[in-house]
Amino acid sequence: MDVKLKPFSRSFFNTLSGKEAVLDPDRFEFTEYRTILVNGEKAGVVGMIFPKGDRSWGAIQIALEPRFRGKGLLQACEDMLASELKVYNLYATIEKENIHSINSHKRAGFRMLSEVDLKKIRKQGFLKESQVRLYKRLDNG
Prior knowledge:
- By secondary structure, this protein is α+β, with helices and mostly antiparallel strands.
- It has helices at 10-15, 73-85, 99-107, 115-123, and strands at 3-7, 31-38, 41-49, 58-64, 89-95, 111-112, 131-137.
- The chain is globular and about 45 Å long.
């Protein structure tokens, strides 16, 4: 399977099934988004948000067309984007009910933040009660 990240396509994003799980890149000042190609076909979008431009960590997001799910693309694409951008601390915010995405992120090396940390983040207003946050640290290359 040939997987590539190409420049973000707004027109493709607008047609993407499941795009609701991805925050619109235009809502944030510091973002990097890419269109995922698999064997030359548009398969999804992967992106990262950098709070206040701090590139020491990023909030990673991905949406894949249903026919491309379950093929290991989540880890490959998130890791490719992180490597390209040289960001090695990744956070993923996922709805609690999206067990498939939570499990996919765990298989990709993400770990759930502790309940203490989740409560703290919720109290600060950065995480909804309906969400969980996972963390992954990548090696520096």
